């Protein structure tokens, strides 16, 4: 069944737009700008795929709850008394009111603010005043949402029939994340940025570093732009020399990582896979330790069982997320669509749970690079959205050399929309 907010005209429009996408090019304008495409994305992508929603340490203790809006839906994630992490629709079983407000709460039980229906942390309805002695409370359990922790990063799927290939993400990325023990890390800092652009522009912007040298002076200190999807054939002689130097440095580092049992190879699941992701251990420039202005570690206590400052940047992209996991800290990003032209980007900086601010890390040092980069990226997404909303826009060509991942993301998007009832 398609989304209730879309009539057949809207569905036909979205389908026509998807069919008209030219390979190797950005999407037709209205796939970024129209209300119909936004509603179709909420339905086909955000309600039927595994979406990154947070981290295990968002809910450290029993009774910790976070509410996360996923497109037009809202879920709550909590830690129960047995230390399990559970997710439910943030919808009361009585008359549907939002159970918990946006952000973080700490609860003994979940009490609906409307008429005080009260739920245990396993979702069971414990109390429903004035519903009569014969009222069958068992039938009014909170509706569960599928939730998976992948090495300490939480993914939720709103569908009753979630894509099974989440097991690949767990096996591949969960394994790579194991030594970082992110489940037991702590959130040192968190920001929310509303980008004035469609969520697909946020994700496209993130999947290339074509824009990095001229827009990210801070990130460029530690981040090598010449990596994913980079084909030296398209380069000028000087760029090619630079790429070769980097390839040699990577090969050297790769041997060290292999010696330490740290996987590094790029693994990509794009077109043909419902659960889109890419992972690779990347080298860090400069002194090679972390995404800081000095390129040195920001925290003196390494994450989990990590012991190698030069372990690089375990990089992970997903449908709505990007992550940088380093020896001393991790930066976890999620992007959630709020409307056709607004996207909420949440950034969480994770450190070892015993690390103390002011002693083991300095917050400014920890957050400076990505705070600056987020601001710069928000501006780029805003100007891109202004452009696609203008009369003069026509789909433009992606670079074969530096934007291959964007072309694949657009192709994956068209494929997933089509598989879920649009575009055929
Ligand atoms: O953070 C990321 O994953 C991407 C990759 C290159 C630049 N960037 C913001
Ligand atoms: Fe929740 Fe009435 S809507 S108790
Ligand atoms: Fe950027």
From TrEMBL:
Residues 50-156 form the Rieske domain. GO terms for molecular function: 2 iron, 2 sulfur cluster binding; iron ion binding; oxidoreductase activity. The keyword Iron applies. It holds the Pfam family Rieske. Keywords: 2Fe-2S, Iron, Iron-sulfur, Metal-binding, Oxidoreductase. Its cofactor is Fe cation. PANTHER family: CHOLINE MONOOXYGENASE, CHLOROPLASTIC. This is (Fe-S)-binding protein. It comes from Ahrensia marina.
């Amino acid at each position: 069944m398609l989304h209730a907010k879309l009539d057949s005209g809207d569905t036909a429009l979205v389908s026509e737009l998807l069919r008209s996408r030219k390979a190797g090019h950005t999407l037709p304008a209205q796939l970024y700008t129209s209300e119909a495409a936004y509603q179709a994305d909420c339905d086909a992508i955000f309600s039927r795929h595994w979406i990154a929603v947070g981290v295990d340490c968002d809910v450290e203790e029993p009774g910790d709850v976070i509410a996360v809006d996923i497109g037009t839906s809202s879920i709550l994630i909590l830690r129960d008394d047995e230390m399990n992490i559970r997710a439910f629709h943030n919808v009361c079983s009585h008359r549907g009111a939002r159970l918990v407000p946006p952000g973080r709460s700490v609860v003994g039980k979940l009490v609906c603010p409307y008429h005080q229906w009260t739920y245990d942390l396993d979702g069971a309805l414990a109390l429903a005043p004035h519903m009569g002695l014969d009222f069958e409370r068992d039938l009014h359990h909170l509706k569960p949402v599928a939730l998976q922790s992948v090495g300490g990063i939480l993914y939720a799927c709103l569908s009753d029939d979630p894509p099974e290939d989440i097991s690949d993400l767990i096996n591949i990325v969960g394994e790579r994340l194991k030594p970082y023990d992110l489940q037991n890390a702590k959130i040192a800092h968190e920001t929310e940025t509303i980008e004035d652009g469609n969520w697909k522009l946020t994700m496209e912007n993130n999947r290339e570093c074509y824009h990095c040298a001229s827009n990210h002076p801070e990130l460029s200190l530690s981040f090598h732009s010449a990596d994913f999807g980079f084909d030296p054939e398209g380069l000028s002689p000087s760029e090619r020399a630079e790429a070769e130097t980097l390839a040699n440095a990577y090969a050297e580092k790769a041997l060290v990582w292999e010696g330490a049992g740290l996987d590094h190879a790029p693994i990509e699941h794009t077109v043909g896979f419902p659960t889109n992701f890419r992972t690779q251990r990347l080298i860090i420039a400069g002194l090679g330790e972390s995404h800081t202005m000095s390129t040195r570690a920001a925290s003196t206590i390494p994450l989990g069982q990590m012991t190698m400052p030069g372990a690089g940047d375990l990089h992970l992209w997903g449908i709505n997320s990007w992550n940088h996991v380093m020896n001393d800290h991790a930066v976890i990003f999620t992007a959630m669509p709020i409307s056709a032209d607004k996207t909420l980007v949440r950034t969480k900086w994770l450190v070892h749970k015993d690390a103390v601010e002011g002693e083991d890390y300095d917050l400014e040092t920890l957050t400076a690079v990505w705070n600056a980069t987020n601001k710069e990226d928000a501006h780029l997404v805003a100007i891109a959205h202004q452009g696609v909303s203008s009369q003069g826009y026509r789909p433009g060509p992606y670079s074969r050399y530096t934007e291959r991942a964007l072309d694949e993301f657009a192709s994956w998007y068209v494929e997933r929309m089509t598989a879920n009832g649009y575009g055929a």
